[in-house]
Amino acid sequence: MVTRMGGAAEVADVDRDGGADVDGAREAVAREAAARELAARVADPEMPFVTVGELGIVRGVEVDGDDRVAVTITPTYAGCPAIEVIRREIRARLGAAGFASVEVRTALDPPWSSDWITAEGRRKLAAAGIAPPGAAPARPSGPVPVTLSRRRPAVPCPACGSADTVELSAFGATACKDLWRCRACAEPFEHIKEIS
Amino acid sequence: MDDENVYTALSEADTDARWAYGTGFDDPMAGVDPTVPDGVDAADLAVYCQMLGDDALILAQRLIEWTANAPELEEEVALANIALDLLGQARWLLARAGQTEGAGRDEDALAFLRAEHEFRNVRLVEAPNGDFAETIVRLLAFATWRLALFERLTGSRDPVLAAIAVNGVKELTYHRDYAAQWTVRLGDGTDFSHTRMEAGLAAVEPLVEELFAAHDVERRLAADGVAVDPSGLRPGFDAVRDEVLAAATLARPEVAGLAGVSGLTGRDGVHTEEMGRLLAEMQCVARAYPGATW
Questions:
Q1: In A, which residues are within 8 Å of B19 by CB distance?
Q2: CB B280 within 8 A of CB B107
């Protein structure tokens, strides 16, 4: 049994040479929206207060005419161990939702960018005490210059908002985070690295 | 399904529940188009992916030896992060090697079931860590070289290698900066730390020359626009590393490269004595329990 979610606007581009086709198309759109919602709502295993949709890890969801769903994900870092759990969780949830088959594909190109984290994701990160990333730097076209000084632009403290913060380490508890300390409230905090 | 527990899928949907480390994972390249570009020798490409994959795998294995042994918690986390990045690169590269080789070997078979002479890594990565200074000296050399290599590899005619390189450049930039900043801090630190860095340079330098020696496979694939000929990387490597060493009040030692055996080196599968011990530790569980996953 398929739940109809699609409105007329969503099938506006469909060739209307028959009512059955329109119904089928509407159903496919609804199924795809449902699949997208289910995949995007999977929680990140390392940061369960944000979803993989909000982190920009889910890059695409397609449902074909035989109700087979393909979800495309892009890992944040090559070695991110959470991606295995995310892949299984997406498969399990869409499987439980009754899709004929579920395939989770990996897209390596373009690489994940911290700019893909949604506004809602940033809000939730900050609420959990993790400073969201600023704008990611453009990828250099030539050789990357070496950085000998550790001074980096201050990241506002997610606890008190002070800009008087210092980077403790360029590496944190997960591949995507580094470690900072606030000199105003003395709290250490994590920050999502800006990468693109 | 329980929305609160993000691990439920592991225990409910699969009978072989497990978390992040071990064997038997999904193919990390799932859904990536495996086609080998026209005119490219698939066997050569498989060997080349093993070379770059083995470099990352073996250095990752060395770096995790610091876990629970590093001088400070932050450095332990940093070295483990770098190891994890390299392990991720190794997984993609070895999965690509298995794909193109077409002999049914996956990343696990390549990592855990090959013998020493089948590993294609440069000998730099298999050397023991030494002290923290020596680990940093080695990491600076490796990350500087691999970043230069990956920057060029982003233009590879093999779209999979190019994508792996684009992702790797971001990680390697962090690795090189980490090693460069520690090099400056220790080299330009106390007399004692300076002395230890000099000793690290003396120990590591003989293994650097091999990074720029092109193997036949690399030469052939470079001519096809797929691989990077490492012999062209030396000037850029020297410029970056000399800049870091100068800021650290250190100098590059003038030493001869470690000779191969009848001219054969790591890329040919000829390794130093330490490689066997490293592999014994890395592979013993997989070999003791064939087919087991954990």
A1: 81, 85
A2: no
